[in-house]
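User: quick one, sequence for these tokens?
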């Protein structure tokens, strides 16, 4: 009798475990979507911080180049600190975007797998269409970041080259010698800043769209 009871309990336990497992497989993927949304918003905030750092770099460079008065070391040190701060923020953005990419790829891969488990064709088609829409937006924000990163690399290198040149020739003549390069860098920085602003908007929009939390009305 005890043996039968144990077998019955074991079967019930296994059945309950199977049901819980299947339920988890069906519902858990929204958590990956929510993680992707959180990573998108974190990356957006980091990129927005980068915008302010670009402003600080361009401001300190413009002040040093266009108003070379008094002790030039003061302005140079301010510019150097701004470059270092921008570089640190760029590294933070890269780290957050990489996390977002990983979470998003896992989310859409699992979404694909779950489509096969849907038997109702109408629901399956609607879910597939929704997935395609979100995947396209996800691809677009990744492409936008890649394009911005490609523009940021030469911009950052120019800043560091200016810093290197002035670290040797921190004189009025040295400033005059790099003025044309500084002007180009300033223009590139403003273009980059505008691109970053648009990217922040796209990241936030997709983050809200993928979030399991409804935005406040």
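Assistant:
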């Amino acid at each position: 009798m005890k043996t039968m009871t144990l077998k019955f309990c074991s079967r019930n336990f296994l059945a309950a475990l199977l049901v819980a497992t299947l339920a988890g497989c069906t519902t858990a993927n929204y958590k990956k979507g929510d993680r992707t949304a959180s990573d998108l918003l974190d990356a957006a905030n980091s990129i927005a911080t980068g915008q302010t750092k670009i402003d600080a770099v361009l401001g300190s460079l413009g002040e040093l180049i266009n108003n070379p008065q008094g002790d030039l070391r003061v302005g140079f040190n301010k510019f150097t600190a701004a470059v270092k701060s921008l570089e640190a923020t760029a590294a933070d953005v890269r780290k957050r975007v990489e996390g977002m990419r990983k979470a998003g790829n896992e989310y859409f891969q699992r979404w694909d797998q779950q489509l096969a488990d849907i038997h109702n064709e109408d629901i399956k088609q609607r879910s597939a269409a929704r997935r395609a829409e979100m995947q396209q937006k996800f691809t677009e924000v990744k492409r936008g970041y890649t394009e911005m990163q490609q523009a940021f690399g030469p911009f950052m290198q120019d800043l560091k080259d200016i810093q290197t040149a002035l670290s040797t020739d921190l004189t009025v003549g040295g400033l005059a010698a790099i003025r044309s390069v500084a002007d180009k860098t300033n223009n590139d920085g403003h273009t980059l800043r505008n691109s970053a602003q648009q990217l922040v908007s796209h990241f936030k929009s997709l983050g809200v769209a993928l979030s399991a939390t409804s935005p406040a009305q």
